[in-house]
Amino acid sequence: MKVFLKEDVKSLGKKGDIVNVSDGYARNFLFPRGIAAIADAKAENEHKAKAESEKFRLAAELDEAKGTAKKLESLTVKLVASAGADGKLYGSITNSKVSEALAQQYGIYIERRKIAVDEPIKAYGAYKLEVKLYPGVGASLNILVTDK
Question: pLDDT tens digits for 130-140?
């Protein structure tokens, strides 16, 4: 019997998949728990349409990430911070500050969690940060920390 999974089922498939199972397993386990429904022609067509739209959406996200990566490679984000007499910054430059500056200066909005600051930036200078835009797509972002 073909069933349409409403939830992820270990050893069967993920939510939205259409799988073949025995009649007894479907009637006695899957249907009573609301985990699956009978896969008729309508459900199969909906599944195919969703899979196709998901495929196009993922391709569009990948293209957008690659375009953003190219832009980021050529940019330098300037951050202004105040420091003491010894040159150490008051506080540090964090990924959220970099994200805000990138949005202000260039209009590119990137979640702070996607910007990797390996060590806290506590001094003036130029730095390179890794930005993870999409699985398999990353970019280097140049930042410049100055006093004015």
Answer: 999 999 999 99
Q: Which CATH architecture has domain 68-146?
A: Roll (3.10)
Do the Cβ atoms of 72 and 138 come closer than 8 Å? no
CA–CA gap between residue 66 and residue 83 (Å, rounded): 36
* Cα–Cα dist 94/99, whole Å: 9
Q: Give the Cα separation of 103 and 126 in Å (integer).
A: 19
CA distance 120 to 112: 14
Q: Span 2-64: which CATH code?
A: 3.40.5.10
Could you read off the pLDDT of 78-87 as tens digits, one per residue? 999 998 888 8
Has residue 55 got a pLDDT over 90?
Answer: yes
